[in-house]
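Notebook entry, structure prediction.
Reason for the run: the old model in the group folder had no record of what sequence produced it. Starting over properly, with the input documented here first.
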Amino acid sequence: MFPSTFTLSSSSSLLLIVQHSAASPRRGAKMTFYDDIYPFYSLQRTSFIFSGRLLTIILVFLVLAVSLLLILPGIRGKSRLFWMFRIIISLFIGVVIVALNFTNDWAEAKMTTNATYKSFSNAVVNAEIGLHVGLYGINVTLKGNPVVQFNETINYNEMFSWHDTIEKQYEEALEKGLPNPILYIAEKFTLSSPCGLIFQYRYSGRYASATLWTAFCCWLLANILFSMPVILYAGYMMMATAAFIFFSMASFSTIMNVPQCVFSIGTDSFETTYSHSFWLALATGVLCTVIGILVVMFNCMIPEKMKEAFSVGVDSYEDEDVSYGEGYLNTVFLDGVTISPLTSKEVLSAHI
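New structure, fully documented this time:
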């Protein structure tokens, strides 16, 4: 980094290095010191706003919803309202199942405390520290209170994924010079940590994600069966969808069985608890269970009405009276022929 000709004493060398780095900053960077805090980020950072994957999933299902709702004007009578609710509820279940794989708030913990900001510095900042656990990794947030302290914007949101080796991500975080609270929490999930959180969290997340994708397959199959004259099996598949959602919750809940590792920062500490995605999965599972039970029950009690409601397996000849207009016979060709009136069944068989 520096010329090898710098052969001064330790104190003089350090002073010369500081002057050299201050005199030749990187392009667009402001390498200055302020109260012993080092601005490792050369450019202004922008905080995390919204997950790109979640945005893509929501847009795809919105397009599907709009496309399916465009057919409603072509449906007559009261069945139009039934089809609207059917489309909305079905797509809601589908988008929730897919989105839950990519959310980062199955479990979380937050606290506001005074903590050391950076290494080799005595500067203490007041900030809100958060840990957000997902199926594929964790998010660690640090937001100053106020956001601007020591002439720097304190608003971090760092992602550590299970896919890659978290040790490598932790080393990159050290090279970036991330604040101490973020490094402290990330270190708890490394392989060398005595807490051993990485093993349980990673495998629990993988099994929970696998069962959620299985629930999504059951949801697709249920929608296909609802369009066929097998409404009973569609109800069974909705209950299977609910079962796999509950299995994913049970898999993720195993993280609470490991010895809880207390995160102590400053004078405060916190532990993770279930968060929004976990309770959303529970609500979606209950909704699928209720739909499945109602479909099976109504199909056993009033099967014809169920087929009519879902517009499947309805025979027009059985459901409506067929009226035939008056016919006229040429009596010239029918002398001596006995004519008996045709019954509706004979007319129907003649048409077939």
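Summary: The chain has eleven helices and seven strands.
The old model has been moved to the deprecated folder.
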